[in-house]
């Protein structure tokens, strides 16, 4: 079947190339054929809805969808403005299909999580971006999650947080900070000034006087007695403004309880559920964009259910991270406590782009070789662990700086084999020796954090 381009335009477009097929609505396209690439020539406000309809249809979830003209506001679910030549479109389409075929070992994405990951995977550099929608009670939403959730109710912020905790997503730019009703999470809130005494809404600014003798503040009428100015509290006669009395700057009084006050209380009433609360009871949410992590890319490549690199590294008898940290802490304590305690070293190995190595038989062989050589190099008493898919730790008791440095160099040479000619994998080694490199107060977790940022 030939390469099919569909143009959606409410009015027939005269300048449309003859090989494109024209449709006047998304519904018409969905009832008809299945195109390889879709081009939208619709008004901006209609475009968004059209994109959601297309992304919710199984045939167009990941298809390249362009807009005929570039849009003032970028549309998250589109692939931007139409490229100028057909060759670019065909090339982009081929690249996308190839990446999609490589996703999750060829399994078509089904669940929300897989769909969102597949989207990011097929569009390197894309992010899950937040969009403002003043009609929504939460003001911001994520069109990508909305489209792939397929009308299922999804708590988007919670969903994003879970995937972030699993290390699959990472938040990027801070878009906004919003406050939500503590009872129903709505952000349609009304902030009102109320009387600090009786909390009544009916307050008003009112001219007031302030007696210097006793400090009494009250509406100015209450200071008038028989045509004279007199403090109703201490009965002092007030003659000169500035020396006997003055006018407080902002004075307000409550019509319900007649109290005068300077600062009103602020109450927040939810316009959706009527819940009244003080501003510090509101929930605060940061709205951010999200992108996928290296770990997520690795999962996309290797499958969501299995982690192939584990098959390789497990031959190193990896121990759990907690045990590893415990052992390292123990070494740190001994090094601090006993001067002359034998030196001990820690090596961090970081493989950036490990998923690239695993895509080719050569890369897989190189990783296989690397793991085998690490296994030969380390001793029975050494311990290995992994913090992330692409970060390996070696704890080498009774190894001084010289010994660790030699081992580090040997590992760096082995890592070069993995990197290949195209530099698709970029690995780094960091070496640390106790007690010389130890910082005061540093524990195992802090030390590993320091080394991780050195190699990261
Ligand atoms: Zn009051
Ligand atoms: Zn007074
Ligand atoms: Zn509410």
Question: What does this entry look like structurally?
Answer:
With 456 residues, this protein is an alpha+beta fold. Helices cover 32% and strands 24% of the residues. Among the domains are: 189-280, no CATH class; 311-455, 2-Layer Sandwich (Alpha-Beta Plaits). It is built from 13 helices and 23 strands. The protein has a 4-stranded parallel sheet. A 4-stranded antiparallel sheet has the order 21-22-20-23, with helices on both faces. A 3-stranded antiparallel sheet has the order 8-17-18, with no helix packed on it. The longest helix is centred in the C-terminal third of the chain and has 19 residues, at 401-419. The radius of gyration is 33 Å and the shape is flat. The model has no long low-confidence stretch (mean pLDDT 87). The structure holds zinc ion (3 copies).
Number of helices: 13
CATH-defined topology of the domain at 311-455: Alpha-Beta Plaits
Radius of gyration: 33 Å
Q: How many β strands by DSSP?
A: 23
Instruction: Identify every distinct bound molecule in the structure, by name, code or SMILES.
Output: zinc ion
Tell me about the biggest sheet?
Answer: 4 strands, parallel
CATH superfamily of the domain at 311-455: Reverse transcriptase/Diguanylate cyclase domain
Largest beta sheet: what is the strand line-up? 2-1-3-4
State the CATH class of the domain at 311-455: Alpha Beta
Stretches with pLDDT under 50, minimum 5 residues: none
Strand content: 15-25%
Terminal Cα span: 47 Å
* Share of residues in helices: 25-40%
**Structural classification:** alpha+beta
**pLDDT averaged over residues:** 87
CA-based shape: flat
> Which architecture of the domain at 311-455 per CATH?
2-Layer Sandwich
Oligomer: single chain
